[in-house]
Amino acid sequence: MAFKKEDIIIIEPREIFVGKKDASITLMEFGEYENEECAKVNEIVKQLLEEFEGKIRFQFRHFPLTLIHQRSLKASESAIAAAQEGKFWEMHNVLFNNRRNLGTTSLKLYSKEAGVKNKKFLDDLVNGVYGWQVQDDLKEGHSRGIKELPAFFINETPFSGKPTYANLSAAIKNALRRGKTKAPAKKPKVSTHANKPAPRQKQRA
């Protein structure tokens, strides 16, 4: 008799945020760990989280450019692996700090630095346990029309322009202002006669 394999629940990248859980502004970035511009903007994001503390939450989605950066795929998988122990952001920062040396064996060392305890960490990377999650992010990125990295979205609206601190800060402030001025949607009135048949008209002889 074959034993049923236990279902493993994986924490997906779309479920991982940093910042206030119910913040009115969601800042989402598609990026990868070997990209220099993504590494630079990671420091900018840290500043934005401080400036808008309590008002925004940040999410990082994976878009490894494997034709240019062959190690970015496994690096993304390693971040998702760390997320299973609540260590995504620790691993995220360690990966950017070591972006020029992201070999699979090195990723195991970085996981320890990030506080990951999983003894099967390296085996999971080699076996591509979290590969599907990265592919899901890639598919979503392509569906959103992403061509260059880093790519930002503010409350699902694509951010255009150079992702500098000044530009992103201004865009977030605009989004906050729009949120304050937007009037709450009124519930449509439901007619009590909506389902009643129309009265018949008397016909004249």
Task: Kindly summarize this structure in a few lines.
Helix 3 (88-97) packs across helix 4. The chain has a single domain, classed as Glutaredoxin. 41% of the residues lie in helices and 11% in strands.
The total count of strands amounts to 5
Strand order of the largest sheet: 1-3-2-4-5
Helicity, as a percent range: 40-55%
So what's the oligomer here?
single chain
Task: List strands and helices in order, with pairings.
Layout: E1 18-19, E2 25-31, H1 36-51, E3 56-62, H2 72-83, H3 88-97, H4 104-113, H5 121-126, H6 131-143, E4 151-154, E5 157-158, H7 165-181
Parallel strand pairs: 2-3
Antiparallel strand pairs: 1-3, 2-4, 4-5
Helix pairs in contact: 2-3, 2-4, 3-4
Summarize the structure in words:
This protein is an alpha+beta fold and 205 residues long. It has a single domain, classed as Glutaredoxin. Helix content is 41%, strand content 11%. It contains seven helices and five strands. It has helices at residues 36-51, 72-83, 88-97, 104-113, 121-126, 131-143, 165-181, and strands at residues 18-19, 25-31, 56-62, 151-154, 157-158. Strands 1-3-2-4-5 form a five-stranded mixed beta sheet. The longest helix is centred in the C-terminal third of the chain and has 17 residues, at 165-181. The chain starts with 17 loop residues before the first strand and ends in a 24-residue tail after the last helix. Residues 1-6 and 183-205 have low confidence and may be disordered.
Kindly list the characteristics that best describe this protein:
disordered C terminus, Glutaredoxin, single chain, 205 residues
